[in-house]
C-alpha cells in the first residue's frame, strides 16, 4: 500500500464517523410522542419527553399509561386478561401497546414535525381492524 492510499482510507473513515456523530446529535428524543386511540378515535397525543401519567376512563373500565424517562408503558388496567400490562415499555417508532378488551391502542409517533408519520385526517390514523 502506498502512503496516499492510507491517507485516503483514513479520510473516508473520519468523514463517515463525523457523519454518524452529526446524525446522532441531531436525532434527539424531544420530538417523540405517543398517540392514544380509544375505539378508533384519537384520545390524545402526549410527549415522551415529559414524565406524566395518563388515565383513560370510559364507562366501567380504565387504563393508566405512565410516561417515564422517554418511555411509555401500561401501568395499570382493569381488563380481564391484563396482557397490555405485560407488553413492556415502548419508545421507538412502530412500537405499540394494545388493550383489546378496551379497544385502546398506544403507539409511538417518531417526530411531530415529520409529515410521513401522521396526517390531519382522523380516518387515516384510526386502526383498520379491532377484534373482540
Automatic annotation (TrEMBL):
<protein>
    <submittedName>
        <fullName>NusG domain II-containing protein</fullName>
    </submittedName>
</protein>
<dbReference type="InterPro" id="IPR038690">
    <property type="entry name" value="NusG_2_sf"/>
</dbReference>
<dbReference type="Pfam" id="PF07009">
    <property type="entry name" value="NusG_II"/>
</dbReference>
Amino acid at each position: 500500500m502506498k502512503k496516499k492510499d492510507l491517507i485516503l482510507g483514513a479520510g473516508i473513515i473520519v468523514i463517515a464517523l463525523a457523519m454518524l456523530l452529526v446524525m446522532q446529535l441531531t436525532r434527539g428524543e424531544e420530538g417523540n410522542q405517543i398517540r392514544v386511540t380509544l375505539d378508533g378515535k384519537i384520545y390524545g397525543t402526549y410527549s415522551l419527553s415529559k414524565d406524566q401519567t395518563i388515565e383513560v376512563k370510559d364507562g366501567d373500565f380504565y387504563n393508566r399509561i405512565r410516561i417515564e424517562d422517554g418511555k411509555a408503558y401500561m401501568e395499570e388496567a382493569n381488563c380481564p386478561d391484563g396482557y397490555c400490562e405485560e407488553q413492556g415499555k415502548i419508545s421507538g417508532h412502530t412500537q405499540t401497546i394494545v388493550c383489546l378488551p378496551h379497544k385502546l391502542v398506544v403507539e409511538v409517533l417518531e417526530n411531530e414535525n415529520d409529515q410521513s408519520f401522521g396526517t390531519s385526517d382522523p380516518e387515516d390514523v384510526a386502526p383498520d381492524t379491532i377484534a373482540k
